[in-house]
Amino acid sequence: MNVPYQRVNGDAFAELGSVGSETLPVMKLETLNRCRGRVGTNVRSFRALKVVIGALLLVLVLSSAVVSKLTLISMTSRLGSALVDDEPGAAVSLYWQLLFVIMVPQCVTFVRTMLRGVCGKRTSTFPWPTFRALLVGIVSSTVEVIAMTCLVFLVLTHLPKISAIFIMNGIFMVQAVLDLFRVKCWELSGRGIVRCLHAVLENKISRIVGIGLQVGPILAAAGYIGWATKDVMLPVTLPLCLLVISAVWSTGCQRLGTKASARTRPEASAHNWSSDSTKLRSRYKSNFINSGIRIILYPVVSYIIFRYALTHNRVDPWCLHESCSLADTFKWPEKDMALFFAQILGSFLGYIFAWISCCMGLHRWGLAVPLFLCTPISVAICVGVMHYDKFELFPESLVHVNHVVSSTVFLLWLGQMLVVGFSIWKEKNVILAKDSSMFVSPHYDGVLLEQQILLNRKVEDVKKKPKKKEKKTVFVCSTMYREDSDEMEQMLSSIHNLACYYSEEKDKNQDPETCDHFESHVFFDGGVNGDSLTHFALQLVSLLEKSLSVDIKVCQRFKTPYGYRLSWLVENAMPFSIHLKDNTKIKNKKRWSQVMYMNYVLNHRIPSDTPALNGNSTFILTTDADIRFTAESAVVLLDMLDSDPQVGAVCARTHPQGSGLLYWYQVFDYAIGHWFQKAAEHVLGCVLCCPGCFSAFRCCALNSVLETYSTEVSNSKATEFLTKDMGEDRWLCTLLVEKGWRLEYCAVSENHTHCPEDFDTFYKQRRRWIPSTVANLSLLITQASEITRGNDTVSVLFVLFQAVLVFSTAISPATVILVIASGFASAYKVSDSAVIALIVLLLLLSIAYGLFCIYGKPQHQLDVAKFASLILVIFMGVVFAGNLKNMIYDAVTLIKDCSKYEACMNAVNGTFMFPLTPSTMYLTLFTLLFIIAGLVHFNEFSCLIHGVWYFLALPSGYLLLLIYSVANLDDRSWGTREASSAGGQGGGVGSFKKYLDLGLNKIVGRWTNKTPDVKENRPPDQSTGPTTQNGIALKVANNQVVDDAVRSQYEILVNEREFMLSDQVRQWLADVECPLEYVDLFERHGYFKLSFIAGMTAEDLKFIGIQRRGYILRLEKAAKDLPPYCIISELNCDENMNVGIWLQCLELHAYRRLFESAGYKTRADLENLKGLTEEDLQRMGIHMRAHLGRLKEGIGRLSYLHNSQFKLQQDVVQWLRNNGCVQYTQHFEREGYFNSRFIAGLKSKDFEAIGITERGLRLRLERAAKTLPAFVIQKGIPLDVGTWLESLEMQGYQELFAAAGYQTKGDLESLKGLKADDLKKLGILKKAHLQRLVEGIDRLTYATEGENKVHDTKTILQGVTVDSADVAECAFWESMLDVGQPLRPIEASFKSDAELKEALKALRNATLAVLLLINIMWIVLLYTLQFPELVKYNLPSKAFEALFLAVYALIILVQFGAMIAHRGVTLVHYLARVESTS
């Protein structure tokens, strides 16, 4: 059984461990497969793959190091032989080769450090060295140049090959001395054999032995050489060179030379990119200076040593005799060229492969083993080659030594292994570690490659106590609103997978100080209303038992200032909480939910003085509520955050979920967006958007931008609305980039999210995305100077690249038009005039759609876009078919006509003919690039299949969608997952057909001077019927002409001036500019007061004789603005009530005598009126349409039932009293709002219908109604009608329904057909009761399993004890909801929406104008540029096709190259996460 989650208070959480750069635990594939329910087959295959990669890296590093070493030995030995044989030309050539071998790594280091740490880089992250460090670097570089030059030209040229190879290992003596003071004596660790190895290798005695093995052989070899050659210089030079190089390359000297200037440390610590800012190193700028010094000194020192020490002034390498110029020295033989380039490439590739091995966690087999085996294998190869030296690579040396000396220098290799072997073997860095955490200095050496890498490898200080694994804390924060149950379930299942992983890791690591901590939080917008959970919140909780395997009953329910918090413990390990937001207490919408959880984590769960925050060990994993991910995908995001403290956020590869054509379109759209755009941003600079659907953020990075991210939108700045509220994820990332953080893209991590499957939702979603993306990119471009100075990863070229992308987006409509036109022209060989006509037509249609989007209704805009997209898809299909035909024709022609191909390649007779047309080359290039991209993303290759549909939908996605997005900039709605409204529904084919019919009717009306859409109400024989003096026929309800008696009655009433038009009606008709002939129509049909006109519909206006559509629409709109006449219900409650008073209430007291003559006079007669129909009233002589309608409504309002069960309850009276509206008590009782559950959720218009005329009171009551618990009607089939009425709190109507024949369970089926009008006929007239009963009838359906589960969950939660959150949490939330705080909700009436709306409209108009101007200019520019000389190259004279190819091909090629580079990083990351068998 799960234990309820006990919240960790602030003090306990403050005990989190400090930050470091330790690696995150590699997730075992067994754990992942168990979470996914898979077998362990993939485990063996992945391990085998990593073993193969490890073996390959071992071979590559070993072969590169061996080639580098042997080619160097060959050069030095042949130089010595050339000097002995007195061959100055060969000696000079070898001198230059060795000089380049020494200098090329320095040049590479110089360029690398300049680009990486100098050009455009801040001194905070790439500081300059201190003056002392600068002096150390200058001195060490100078002596290193002298020592390395002497070693190469004076020592290696004279020693035997084998001895020279062993001598290279003698540069570890100083490092051994330094290690002597860093290790403890006989410190034991481990167990068994490992313990013995620790005892032997990790102690001072082993270091003393290492020093002996380094110093002794060198001195012995030097002494023997001096004795054998009787030469003093070589015996002295040999140990001095090795000693100097050993000192310069030692860890201590390198750290002294890279100490950062103190002026930059405070600025560097602002980001907390290092756990100890005082240890910030000037790696790049120090090595930039030092490598520059070495580049200058190496030619000078080598010239001096070669001329004066080696050749004794016999050979000048810079100036030869007259028969041999300096240029001749670079005309090397093929053998020399091969050896030289082999040495250069071997050194460079050896360093690169060693770096890759460390990144992948294969440092043992990819670095330690091959570098230690390099010396013995080189010796073995050298021995073998000396016995069969066909190419004379190793001539005899100048100094001959015996085998005893060779065996003595062999001990140097053993000393090397003893000094650095064990530390290199056991050292392990984080996955995808930065170069600074793997190597002390960012350079390599071409002479002593493996020795320099071994010394340069950063190892932990063995004297210090080994640091424990740093504790990582991860908060999984999800935002939720109105997701479906399946979307919620897949998100919860993903959380459960993560909990399973965390539970296993927690079981393995019982130390709470080092075990990583995960917990999940869901922030639910509108999850609670007052004290009642909403339907969607209950739906989420009902899924917990199935998805998270938790017992809903075992829940802690806390009441908080923002609503409620529900907490569980998943898998007895990971806390899981649902934060239910009450929108009346805290701001809603996604951005404010993000601000909420950022403040909760940063300012409550992590106090500001906690080392965890300052040390970068706390992360927030953001997810959407419909996301699906694996535990491994969540963990690998942390790899990149952990590998580089400069990284502030990492996003993953997102895959869409769904079905249908739009899903297929988005599969390809998401694929190319990640393959090309995200990868290019990652490689070229910095990812600009880490979407909140699934990304990991560093807490201290969020802390640096939270204050700005929490700001409100300025009502006068429309661009702020686009950046902040419409694209909150991208704006958050823009702020992080401005603060100097790097954002990255991790393709190893994958997630799936639901995508829009219908056209309307897709367009609405992209309507938000496109403007917000362009707005944020524009912000990046306009602030380029500040951002490039503050962010090292954003360069001017990167900003320029983004500007090109923005411009390409702006001209995409013109591009689509030209692509269609040019494709049509090239496919079907139409004339230029036809192409121009097509361009003009498409441009005019685009402008027309833009205008329609400004003035048309939102749904009609989408309907037109659907229809236009369908037409354009068909047109693009025709164009695609034609171009495909041409491509096949060009390919066949190219294969047949080989001479044409030869002419293209050889440019015969000065002509250069392209074998393919531009359109063929363009499509071929892009097709090949996409195929290659699919191959390198082999598991996503199927996405290319959907590229065909993407191409066909190109006009819809890049022409119509852009116009729709820009034209709706003033639309502030979210567009997706919003509550549907009556006015916003419709659409689809039916809505478009209605709109099309409307347009056709307008056209027909103008041609025939009629209004076809208005049906005439005159019967065919109306012209012969009786009329009034103005010729207008009198009508009755059945559209028949009245007889003489009716006309007489009408004339009597008119003569009595009872129903003459009031002055208010005449003034109203004058205000709406109603023609004079229509005024009499209102009077003749009884509309003599404004109360009768209020709410008139178009049907009523047509009925009285108004046939012109324009006047009908105008009058209908004006009638809606009139205040409605409220007929008091339950008129018979007054004891003095009679028929006369009733008619007076209806403003029809002139009919009093008419009713009295018919026998309706007293109070008792009121009940008899209930049976009167419209025909009965006509027989009495009442025929005016307005009067008939008023009398029918008045009769309906006569309530003979005054049930005591519907008496106003005390809670309503108290609620009205609290809100200062107690005077309206009778109004609420009259309309049936007898308890508070009927009032919950009422709007201002509902209170107006009740009879509350004061706007202030209505708005006050509306706010108060939001806090009342809503009444939820459960779906299901009850036992009988009585039970059903009891569930609706309408049991007072049980006798009424029984009298009407609705009583048993079988009668429930008959209720399904009842409408509000039918219920009125039953005698149910109260508005609240009608609404409740109609809703109850709609809910008479069998409930699904999920709905039953929701109902059961509600019952369970009602039994859970509600506790108050602890004092600290309540105080925190109260402080966040204080006046002036960003999370405090703002009343809609206090917002200056009108100002913002006008600003958005102004921005929309300006953007549309600029967009139109740019596209027209682009079309004119490209199509009018003439280059006749291109015709002879088989290119068109008009250059727009060539320019298209150049511009867009350049963009895609840059992105393609970046994608290839990113795939390499992804492969390294992927393999690094696989647990090897070793």
Write a structural description.
The protein is mostly helical. Helices cover 59% and strands 6% of the residues.
Question: What is the gist of this entry?
Answer:
By secondary structure, the chain is mainly alpha-helical. It is 59% helix and 6% strand. The protein is built from 64 helices and 13 strands.
Strand elements, count: 13
Report the sheet with the most strands, covering strand number, pairing sense and barrel closure. Answer: 11 strands, mixed
Average predicted confidence as pLDDT:
78
Low-confidence stretches: 1-41, 185-192, 265-278, 389-394, 903-912, 980-1052, 1129-1134
Q: Span from first to last CA?
A: 38 Å
Strand fraction: 5-15%
Cα radius of gyration in angstroms: 43 Å
Strand order of the largest sheet: 9-12-10-11-8-1-2-7-6-5-13
Helix-strand category:
mainly alpha
Oligomer: single chain
- Total helical segments: 64
Helix content: 55-70%
Shape: elongated
Q: How is the secondary structure organized here?
A:
Blueprint: H1 10-13, H2 29-36, H3 41-84, H4 88-117, H5 131-155, H6 161-167, H7 173-180, H8 192-201, H9 204-229, H10 233-248, H11 251-256, H12 265-268, H13 283-310, H14 334-359, H15 363-387, H16 403-426, H17 435-438, H18 449-456, E1 473-480, H19 485-508, E2 517-524, E3 528-529, E4 532-533, H20 535-542, H21 544-547, E5 556-560, E6 563-570, E7 574-581, H22 590-605, H23 611-614, E8 618-624, E9 627-629, H24 631-643, E10 647-657, H25 661-684, E11 694-698, H26 699-709, H27 718-724, H28 728-738, E12 742-754, H29 759-782, H30 784-790, H31 796-810, H32 812-828, H33 832-855, H34 858-896, H35 898-906, H36 918-936, H37 947-952, H38 954-967, H39 988-1008, H40 1044-1055, H41 1063-1071, H42 1076-1084, H43 1090-1093, H44 1098-1103, H45 1109-1120, H46 1139-1145, H47 1152-1157, H48 1164-1168, H49 1174-1179, H50 1185-1196, H51 1210-1218, H52 1225-1230, H53 1236-1239, H54 1244-1250, H55 1255-1266, H56 1281-1287, H57 1294-1299, H58 1308-1311, H59 1316-1321, H60 1327-1338, H61 1345-1358, E13 1362-1364, H62 1367-1376, H63 1393-1424, H64 1440-1473
Parallel strand pairs: 1-2, 1-8, 2-7, 5-13, 10-12
Antiparallel strand pairs: 3-4, 5-6, 6-7, 8-11, 9-12, 10-11
